[in-house]
Write a structure and sequence with these properties.
9 strands, about 20% strand, single chain, elongated, two-stranded antiparallel sheet, disordered N terminus, alpha/beta
């Protein structure tokens, strides 16, 4: 039976075989890998991944697709987890986890932040996302693409845009271009923020009105003496600061509270 893509799930199914092969080639699945696919859909990536790993986990919310997967694969090869990925407990899966997926565009940003909570259990992640989102994720300081998403994800992951994908690679074609990104969790030694919550507060405040200078956006958190101690010019905007600068600000504020 033909499956009709559902808008409420943001379903755009990958169909271009060359793109599929490029993605699988970038992932390089090995037999013993603990791998989970988010949103397997009609199985464009599921089939080649399942053929290469001993057992594949998938997370799917669409009941019709879940039924298809149960009919197509034995439980010993494919473990189907039914439900909303934003409520899924990734700690229930094996450690050193490899996460892949063609992510629904309508939940991609909250899902990336959600997955960051489990980064210490993850080896790597490969995702198809809206190209604009990937460009924001990997953007360097100084441009309009650089923002809260860039800083918070670059603090937690090393990331690279691997492949750009045109709308025609999907059915139905989305109205935007897509891209594949690789995300590698950074080591504990690289995570130098004294408080994750404190870092998030600084970044959120700084980018809330991005045209404002730091002097205005961080008013009440930092004064002239603080900026002098940090060696940061208060007339700069948030987009001018590197990730390390935000970490320094967050740590400075944490030390002031101690």
């Amino acid at each position: 039976m033909k499956h009709v893509p559902r808008k409420r799930f943001g379903q755009h199914f990958l169909t271009d075989q060359a793109v599929i092969e490029s993605i699988v080639g970038a992932i390089r699945p090995q037999a013993g890998d603990a791998m989970v696919e988010i949103g397997p859909g009609l199985g464009a990536l599921t089939a080649p991944l399942c053929a290469l790993v001993d057992r594949l986990h998938v997370i799917e919310i669409d009941r019709d697709i879940i039924a298809r997967l149960h009919r197509a694969y034995p439980p010993a090869r494919l473990a189907v987890h039914a439900g909303d990925v934003l409520e899924f407990d990734f700690s229930a899966l094996p450690p050193d986890l490899r996460v892949v997926g063609n992510l629904p565009y309508n939940i991609s940003t909250p899902l990336l932040f959600y997955l960051a909570r489990y980064a210490e259990r993850i080896r790597d992640m490969h995702f198809m996302l809206q190209k604009e989102v990937v460009e924001r994720m990997v953007a360097p300081p100084g441009g309009r693409d650089y923002g809260r998403l860039s800083v918070m994800l670059q603090y937690r992951f090393d990331m690279a845009l691997l492949l750009e994908v045109a709308p025609g690679a999907f059915s139905p074609p989305p109205q935007v271009n897509s891209a594949v990104v690789r995300m590698l969790p950074r080591t504990p030694a690289q995570l130098t923020a004294k408080s994750q919550a404190g870092l998030e507060q600084v970044v959120r405040r700084a980018f809330a009105q991005r045209r404002k200078t730091l002097r205005n956006s961080l008013a009440g958190l930092l004064d002239a003496v603080d900026y002098a101690s940090l060696g940061i010019v208060p007339g700069l905007r948030a987009e001018n600061l590197a990730v390390a600068d935000f970490v320094r600000i967050g740590n400075y504020l944490a030390e002031k509270e101690d």
